[in-house]
């Protein structure tokens, strides 16, 4: 299942800059990130890496505001798993492929989030993050293939 065309197209390293993000500060505040971390994140760059080993897909994330600190999650498409976020929330998370996009649904109190990753052109992906907080908040970030 993990050998899907969407997963295969995401394999490798991707880099973003907070300058390429829309509404990042509001989104990070909505998901409960502390103000000092929001400020640092909004001035940083991040590197993500997607790898596959059999049915297991691993997504790794490293930000320039915490150099050397890599956060990784391993999952199988369609299989729910428990995820602990950087803000300390414990969520039920499921990745699925829908309409040529990778969709991550995070279910937990006090709100749910959906992150949709799509390749918009060769070497460029856009992640659209939506938090159903009150009020609902969304963010988009662009990542370029390394």
TrEMBL record:
<dbReference type="InterPro" id="IPR031259">
    <property type="entry name" value="ILBP"/>
</dbReference>
<protein>
    <submittedName>
        <fullName>Uncharacterized protein</fullName>
    </submittedName>
</protein>
<dbReference type="GO" id="GO:0008289">
    <property type="term" value="F:lipid binding"/>
</dbReference>
<dbReference type="Pfam" id="PF14651">
    <property type="entry name" value="Lipocalin_7"/>
</dbReference>
<dbReference type="InterPro" id="IPR012674">
    <property type="entry name" value="Calycin"/>
</dbReference>
<comment type="similarity">
    <text>Belongs to the calycin superfamily. Fatty-acid binding protein (FABP) family.</text>
</comment>
């Amino acid at each position: 299942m993990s050998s899907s065309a969407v997963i295969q197209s995401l394999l490798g390293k991707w880099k973003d800059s907070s300058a390429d993000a829309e509404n990042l500060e509001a989104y990070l505040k909505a998901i409960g990130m502390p103000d000092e971390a929001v400020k640092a994140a909004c001035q940083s760059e991040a590197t993500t890496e997607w790898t596959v080993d059999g049915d297991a897909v691993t997504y790794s994330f490293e930000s320039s505001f915490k150099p050397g600190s890599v956060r990784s999650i391993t999952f199988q498409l369609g299989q729910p798993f428990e995820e602990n976020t950087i803000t300390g929330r414990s969520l039920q998370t499921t990745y699925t492929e829908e309409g040529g996009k990778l969709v991550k649904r995070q279910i937990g109190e006090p709100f749910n989030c959906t992150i949709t990753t799509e390749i918009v052109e060769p070497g460029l992906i856009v992640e659209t993050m939506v938090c159903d907080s009150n009020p609902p908040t969304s963010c988009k970030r662009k990542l370029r293939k390394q």
